[in-house]
Amino acid sequence: MLVINGMNIIRPAVVVTLLLSLIRCVPSSATRDLAAADRAVAEFHRRVFAGEDELIYRDGAPEFRSTITLAELKKANTNVRETYGALDSSRRASFKIDYGHGSASSTITQVYKSQFARGDATEQFTWKLNSNGVVSLLHYDIHK
Q1: DSSP secondary structure of 51-78
Q2: Is the pLDDT reported for residue 86 higher than 90?
Q3: Which of 49, 74, 116, 119 has the most other CB atoms within 10 Å of its CB?
Q4: Looking at domain 2-143, which of 3.40.50.300, 3.10.450.100, 3.30.230.10, 3.90.1150.10 is its CATH number?
């Protein structure tokens, strides 16, 4: 400990150590949360092309279900299957994690570049992240 003018001052090395330990915590939770969202994208793709629209709807966030009916979701997913064909590959191009500072709601937005049997498309997923690290769909958009 460093003492200047009677005041205890924390050594710079201690400050650096504390800061580094805090910095290490953030990426690990972000990495975990992003991995959960990546798994959710893979599951979403599997469900869309298996025709499991009811499961997509059931597992979507309440905010998602309040913006679309199951019938509308079925129609939209049928349109995706008919327009784009089977999914060949997909890769995450970008992401943003918003931990909702001061609010109960955190979100993860991901943009995927995907190749389908009938051409390429950009997909955007927005997930609601709960305190247990579970994600649920808030919004999905696809366009060529």
Answers
A1: T-HHHHHHHS-HHHHTT--HHHHHHHHH
A2: yes
A3: 116
A4: 3.10.450.100
